[in-house]
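Hello,

Our lab assistant flagged a job as stuck in the queue for most of the afternoon. It eventually completed. Since we weren't sure the result was trustworthy after the delay, we are filing this so someone can double-check. Below is the sequence as submitted and the structure that was eventually returned. Let us know if re-running is recommended.
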Amino acid sequence: MASHRRPKQPSRTRVTVLTATAAAAVALSAQTGAQAAPKPKIDEVKSKVDALHHEAEEATEQYNLAEERRGKLQQEIGDLQDKVARGQQELNTLRDQIGSVASAQYRSGGIDPALQLFLSADPDTYLDKASAIDQLSAQQADVLTTIQAKQRSLAQQRAEATAKLADLEDVRKTLGAKKKKYLGKLAEARQLLNTLTQEERERLEQAERAKEQRASRAAGERMDLGNEVPASGLGGAALAAAATQIGKPYVSGAEGPNSYDCSGLTQWAYRQAGARLTRTTYTQQNDGVKIGRSQLKPGDLVFFNGLSHVGLYAGNNTILHAPKPGANVRYESMDYMGTFQFGVRIGG
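-- returned structure --
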């Protein structure tokens, strides 16, 4: 006869041992995972942060370009709307003149059939008929022809304004996307920096300060070396103006006077010298004459890294610029700047 005994339950001691074993396995697994993804070294973090700052700066310049386009579109739309309003007023005046003629003819016994046709039909269709124009007096024909031209001009201006409004909406979307991109890159950079210890972050800051001091000494010695071509009057004045801003922070999209991004600083410096530059690296490259590295004079614009960065040449292989987020306006060796594109001389 089969046994119906209940199965033996595991003891509390056995359960405790199994639980402890499982916990140890989880801890070992976590430790193994941590070993598989070691903490990045300080040099690796610095390299990645620099790359993210470069991407953020590129997005900033694209944002600035879109912002400049938005400003121009708004001005153009405003001008067109003013033209449409003035044109509509002129058209209303002309129509009042035709209405006065019709009223006078009615009081004198009837309206000219040609004028009556105009008042009751589309003037474009009517004026296309040469025989109808012949029925009007010369004065009436002139007024109606002017009305026709005004109507066509207004229709064209309204269509142009509508198209520009659509362009403006696209630019606004681009602005939002570019701003989101550069803010995202800055956030990534901050997260990477937060993986470092306090001591490591201090070492990075000390290295940045030492690099800045070396570049500043090199800039101060440039005239003593006697191997620099003197700055032009305009470039020298812009460089001198930029030097007064040393120590002010880099801020994306800033144009001074309290903070700058790279093209904001160059634009501000040349404005103090009496020259008007456009707002972004992508447009400032066309504000003067392109030159090679061997032709550079102090005060020339210098472009790097696919036109995403610009500074002022300070002589002795040194530039004065607004470097990147978290840094201040400073001198820096061109050896640290990445790929040199070309220089641009403003004002000859």
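-- support follow-up --
The delay was a queue issue, not a problem with the job. The result is valid. The two ends are 113 Å apart (CA to CA). DSSP finds ten helices and six strands in the chain.
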